[in-house]
Amino acid sequence: GENVEQHPSTLSVQEGDSAVIKCTYSDSASNYFPWYKQELGKRPQLIIDIRSNVGEKKDQRIAVTLNKTAKHFSLHITETQPEDSAVYFCAASIGYGQNFVFGPGTRLSVLP
Amino acid sequence: NAGVTQTPKFQVLKTGQSMTLQCAQDMNHEYMSWYRQDPGMGLRLIHYSVGAGITDQGEVPNGYNVSRSTTEDFPLRLLSAAPSQTSVYFCASTRRGGPQETQYFGPGTRLLVL
């Protein structure tokens, strides 16, 4: 089955700097790659996603890139702010959003 | 829309007890899933359903049962609780099609098994 790895497990950046989180997946059939943000004690919330037919997607300060050949995808956050501090999860799925497999998460801390 | 709702928010069980975690969604989503979240391990899929009357096992199904008699409801049953089932449980529903396969999560149920 699918296996998703995520690095780093923790990341500290200064406010205003960029943050990059990387994930790799094992199943070449996976075609949908969402990223979730989870604040302490809250539910995960989708922040951005990408499909396998697209190489990059941007939404304001957040971008995701996908390399199908290498089977890895990355989350890029620019101009980080303290409110970006949270745990970020990547995931991969095959087909119509079923059977999501999540990475173990990255705890991002944005230092003022 | 209430979105995805879960009850209870918090539960304490003794080893061997059984209980049902409730999940409901009012968005007419076909897909619903149950995850457990343990520290440092992300979310792991327990069971999922692609529609009423259809369920399947995820990564960690042992000790749990599900049913999907309606589109709206997807309860998770713990048959005989064990301390290893202490976790936070999230139910999720997924909108199929369109530009996003957005997965909406419920608020979670914190379960402590003594």
Q: In words, what does this structure look like?
A:
The complex is a heterodimer of chains A (112) and B (114). Chain A has strands spanning 4-7, 10-14, 19-25, 32-38, 45-51, 56-59, 62-67, 72-77, 86-94, 98-102, 106-111. Chain A is mainly β. In chain A, strands 2, 4, 5, 9, 10 and 11 form a six-stranded mixed sheet that branches. In chain A, strands 1-3-8-7-6 form a five-stranded antiparallel sheet, with no helix packed on it. Chain A is globular, with a radius of gyration of 13 Å. Chain B has strands spanning 4-7, 10-13, 19-25, 31-37, 43-51, 54-57, 64-66, 76-78, 87-94, 103-105, 109-113. In chain B, strand 4 (31-37) and strand 5 form a beta hairpin. In chain B, the strands form two sheets. In chain B, strands 2, 4, 5, 6, 9, 10 and 11 form a seven-stranded mixed sheet that branches. In chain B, strands 1-3-8-7 form a four-stranded antiparallel sheet, with no helix packed on it. Chain B is mainly β and 114 residues long. Chain B has no helices and eleven strands. At the A-B interface, strand 5 and strand 10 of A face strand 4 and strand 5 of B.
Number of helices of chain B: 0
DSSP helical segment count of chain A: 0
Structural class of chain B: mainly beta
Distance between the termini of chain A: 41 Å
Please state the CA-atom Rg of chain B, rounded to the nearest Å.
Answer: 13 Å
Helicity of chain A, as a percent range: under 10%
Q: Name the poorly predicted regions of chain A.
A: none
Estimated structural class of chain A:
mainly beta
Rounded to an integer in angstroms, the radius of gyration calculated over CA atoms of chain A is: 13 Å
Report the β-strand fraction of chain B as a percent range.
Answer: over 45%
Strand elements of chain B, count:
11
SSE ordering of chain B? EEEEEEEEEEE
- What's the quaternary structure here? heterodimer
DSSP summary, beta strand count of chain A? 11
Helix content of chain B: under 10%
Q: Which outline of chain B best applies?
A: globular
Main β-sheet of chain B: number of strands, strand sense, barrel status? Answer: 7 strands, mixed
Mean pLDDT of chain A, as a whole number? 93
